[in-house]
Specification:
Order of helices and strands: EHEHHEHHHHHEHEHHHHHH
CATH superfamily of the largest domain: HUPs
Shape: elongated
Strand content: 5-15%
Strand order of the largest sheet: 1-2-3
Mean pLDDT: 94
Number of helices: 15
Distance between the termini: 30 Å
Helix content: 40-55%
Bound molecules: tryptophan, iron/sulfur cluster
CATH topology of the largest domain: Rossmann fold
Radius of gyration: 22 Å
Number of strands: 5
Structural class: mainly alpha
Low-confidence stretches: none
CATH architecture of the largest domain: 3-Layer(aba) Sandwich
Largest sheet: 3 strands, parallel
C-alpha cells in the first residue's frame, strides 16, 4: 500500500488561535494517521508582506512550530520544517517563475483582495505577485498529491495545477502529480466580536493562553444583545457563547443551554462558566504539550533540523529531475548533495 503524500504550510504571522485550530490544524493532526505529511512554516511567504519589518519573523516561526506540536502534530510521523531551511524551494520557485504567465498571477483573487485591503503596506512587489508560484514550488517539490487547506487557498492550488500542466507540456515530461486540495469540513470560528476570528481583527483566543486569560476574554463578551436582564429569554442562535459551546462543549451541555437559554432558565454568567470548562478541555492538553516543548528549545531545534534534512532528501531528488527536464547542465547537478 502506498500512502498519499500531503503538504501544507502556514505563513507565520503570530501565534495560532482557535480559528486556525478548528479551521485547519485539527484536520492535519487527524490526517497524519492515513497520509504521509509534510508541514512547512512558510517564512519566506511571510516576507512577501512583512519585508519592511522582519524582526518578529523568527519568533513567529517558533510559535507556529510550538503550536503545531501542542496541537498534536507528531514529528516522528510527519516532517516539520522551516521553508527557508530547504533552499530548493527558492530554486524551484525561480525556475517556475520563468514559465508562469503574469496574467495568471494577476487574476488570482487573493492577490487582488489583499492588495486593496492591506493599504498600509506597499505590496507592489515582485515577490508578492509571485506568492502562489512559491506556494506551487512548496507543494510540487515533494510531489504532494493532497494539500489540506481552507477554501481561501483553492485558487492557489488551481494555479499550481496549471503550472504543473504547463511544465509538463513545455518540457515533454510527467514529473509531478497534479495536487488536489483536501477540503475537510471546517466550522467557521467567530472571534470575540463575532466577525471571523483573525489576528488582524484583534479578536482571537490563542492556543497558548492560560485559563485566566481566556476567562478575562469570555466573561465580558457580549451575549444575546436583546437579553438585558436575567429573566429575559435569550436566543442562543445570535450568541457568541453558544457558538463556542457548539465547538467546544459536549452535546448534552449544548442541548441544555439551547433549551434553558430560550426560557430564561439559565443566566449568562453561568452559561459562560460552563463554556470555560469546555474550552479548557480543548485547550489544556494543547497548552500543556506546548509548554513541554517550549521548555526544551534545543530539542525543537533538533527536530527542525531533522525535518529539514528529511525534506531536503526528497527535494534534492525532485530538483535533479527538474534541472534535467529544463536542460540545465548535468555536471552541476551531479555535484549537489
Ligand atoms: N498560502 C498559505 C496560507 O496563507 C500558506 C502556504 C504556504 C501553503 N505554502 C503552502 C499552504 C503550501 C499549502 C501548501 O495559508
Ligand atoms: Fe448566550 Fe448562554 Fe446567555 Fe443564552 S444563556 S444568551 S447562550 S450566554
Amino acid at each position: 500500500m502506498t500512502t498519499v503524500r500531503c503538504f501544507s504550510g502556514v505563513r507565520p504571522t503570530g501565534p495560532l488561535h482557535l480559528g486556525n485550530y478548528f479551521g485547519a490544524l485539527r484536520n492535519w493532526v487527524a490526517i497524519q494517521a492515513t497520509h504521509e505529511c509534510l508541514f512547512a512554516v512558510a517564512d519566506w511567504h511571510s516576507l512577501t508582506t512583512e519585508y519592511a519589518d522582519p524582526s518578529q519573523l523568527h519568533r513567529w516561526s517558533r510559535d507556529v512550530v510550538l503550536d503545531w506540536l501542542g496541537a498534536g502534530i507528531d514529528p516522528e510521523r510527519s516532517i516539520i520544517f522551516l521553508q527557508s531551511d530547504v533552499v530548493e524551494h527558492a530554486e524551484l520557485h525561480l525556475l517556475l517563475s520563468m514559465i508562469t504567465p503574469l496574467g495568471w498571477l494577476e487574476r488570482v483573487p487573493t492577490y487582488k483582495e489583499l492588495k486593496t485591503q492591506l493599504t498600509t503596506k506597499d505590496l507592489n512587489m515582485y515577490g508578492f505577485l509571485g506568492y502562489p508560484v512559491l506556494q506551487t514550488a512548496d507543494i510540487i517539490l515533494y510531489k504532494a498529491e493532497r494539500v489540506p487547506v481552507g477554501e481561501d487557498q483553492v485558487s492557489h492550488i488551481e494555479l499550481c495545477r496549471e503550472i504543473v500542466r504547463r511544465f509538463h507540456h513545455l518540457y515533454h515530461c510527467d514529473i509531478f502529480p497534479e495536487p488536489q486540495p483536501l477540503l475537510t469540513t471546517a466550522p467557521r470560528v467567530p472571534g470575540l466580536d463575532r466577525r471571523k476570528m483573525s489576528k488582524s481583527y484583534d479578536n482571537t483566543i490563542t492556543l497558548h493562553e492560560g485559563p485566566d486569560a481566556v476567562q478575562k476574554k469570555i466573561m465580558p463578551a457580549v451575549t444575546d444583545p436583546a437579553r438585558k436582564r436575567r429573566q429575559d429569554p435569550g436566543n442562543p442562535d445570535v450568541c457568541l457563547i453558544y457558538d463556542y459551546h457548539k465547538l467546544m462543549s459536549n452535546a448534552e451541555r449544548q442541548a441544555f443551554v439551547n433549551i434553558e437559554c430560550r426560557r430564561a432558565g439559565i443566566g449568562c454568567v453561568d452559561c459562560k462558566k460552563w463554556l470555560l470548562e469546555g474550552m479548557d478541555a480543548v485547550l489544556a492538553p494543547i497548552r500543556e504539550r506546548r509548554a513541554l516543548w517550549a521548555a526544551r528549545p534545543d530539542d525543537v531545534d533538533a527536530l527542525l533540523a531533522d525535518g529539514a534534512r528529511r525534506a531536503r532528501a526528497i527535494a534534492c531528488e525532485t530538483m535533479r529531475e527538474v534541472r534535467d527536464a529544463m536542460g540545465l547542465a548535468r555536471s552541476v547537478t551531479r555535484g549537489r548533495p
